[in-house]
Amino acid sequence: MSNTSFLFAEGLAKKFPGARGKPNLTVFEDVHFSIEKGEFVCIIGHSGCGKTTILNVLAGLDSASAGHVVMDSREVAGPSLERGVVFQGHALMPWLSAKKNVEFAVRSRWPEMKQKDIDAHCAKYLGLVGLTGSEHKKPSELSGGMKQRVGIARAFSIEPKMLLLDEPFGALDALTRGNIQDELKKICAATNQTVFMITHDVDEAILLSDKIMLMSNGPKARIAEIVVNTLPKERTRETLHKEPRFYAIRNHLVDFLVSRSRRFSEELPADYDPKNPPLVTPGLETQPEPPAPKLPVPEASERSAVVVNFR
Fold first, then answer.
1. Which of 109, 114, 216, 259 could join 264 via S-S bond, C-beta 3.0 to 4.6 A?
2. How far apart, in whole angstroms, are the C-alpha atoms of residue 181 and residue 184?
3. Which residues of the chain have pLDDT under 50?
4. From the centroid of its chain, how far is CA 62?
């Protein structure tokens, strides 16, 4: 972990008072990680390990019991328009149209912006998520997927330094989910957006992220390891399963969730250092060596004559 990173968290812990005289509940402790500018980071772990609490701490919506978070050289000490958040629910204002929901955020970010510029700004981000033509519909007139698109457009419209996503596609059908994943990937690539995302979908994490942080089971959860996604940046849903390393990464993540996360929480490995969770690259060491280049064979006319003297 580097203190020169765009965002770094040091020694985060969250404790809740025990009920009826019981000991305090430590949800997670000794959590250290860093995120570089433009990185897309996913965090995966079982329910109860504190993923959403960590996201809320990064957003400034909650405070840690110990430790601190620094983003862009400033400590996170409360909510800020520098961090856009998209929750599991769309959290739209039902009396406002899609455009007005986005406009509300834009006005909060730039109070002095002129109306014509606001209109153009809202149109730009609603267009990026495929909602051109639906700007004046209210949430009750939109499908679940379209509502989430409005939420994403609203978060992007304030041009935050960091985007925080709390499993925003979990309630959507597979087709809608895939389409929004594609839109999100395109926007992040075009804007070099820094993203921290919670997901329970292993394939989604592999498709979208540069790094995947694996949380052990709670209570007293920690970051057990960080998986570096070594697949090509330009991967798509259509090509993902054809990548040679895809199944090695996927199997590694599933194995952690099924068995290793529990074992890790029961007994920490002897060489485990919470300040530097191990970086792993599953499948990278199993890649076949590239074939040796074929040397050009000279044409017959270019071949040298060999004379053998049998004296």
1. 216
2. 5
3. 289, 301-311
4. 20
